[in-house]
Specification:
The protein has 2 domains: 88 residues, Orthogonal Bundle (Arc Repressor Mutant, subunit A); 51 residues, Ferric-uptake regulator, C-terminal dimerisarion domain (Dna Ligase, domain 1). Helices cover 39% and strands 16% of the residues. The chain is built from 5 helices and 6 strands, in the order βααααββββαβ. Strands 1-5-4-6 form a 4-stranded mixed β-sheet, with no helix packed on it. It has a two-stranded antiparallel sheet with strand order 2-3.
């Protein structure tokens, strides 16, 4: 049900996705992709900006935020809304498969979950209420096995 993130090759995939979509591979974009490759887990925009400022000091913080948004719009980066208004990011997987996230409300650990985990709930909400759930951009909240 859960899987470990596998960033190996994700930077190459990100570069390929940009080129395939007719987008330029700019220094700030490469800096953000490389920061995401180096950072463990699901870092926040602030963490990405801090990593970029160390590796590529000439890239402005605002550029990092805009770049994260652009890369998410292009499908190169995945973003997920965590608790308290925080957004976390990671590179799109080599498999190209979207997945869900669960965040421990005690320790903050983020788990990757199978995309089909909430299919039944999504279908039921659609059938009963005519409402289309977007499960991929919000992390489920709860307690991990270690914190229970």
């Amino acid at each position: 049900m859960t899987r470990e993130a596998e960033p190996g090759g994700a930077a190459d995939l990100a570069t390929r996705l940009l080129r395939d979509r007719g987008q330029r591979v700019t220094r700030p974009r490469l800096a953000v992709v490389e920061a995401l490759r180096r950072l463990p887990g699901h870092p926040s925009a602030e963490q990405v900006a801090a990593e970029v400022s160390t590796a590529a000091p000439g890239v402005h913080r605002a550029t990092v935020y805009r770049t994260l948004e652009t890369l998410a719009d292009l499908g190169v980066v995945t973003h997920v809304h965590m608790s308290h208004g925080t957004t976390a990011y990671h590179l799109a997987s080599d498999e190209g498969e979207p997945h869900l996230h669960a965040r421990c409300s005690v320790c903050g650990r983020v788990l990757d979950l199978s995309q089909d985990l909430l299919d039944e709930a999504r279908d039921r909400v659609a059938a009963e209420l005519g409402f289309e759930l977007d499960t991929g951009h919000v992390a489920l909240s709860g307690r991990c096995a270690d914190c229970r």
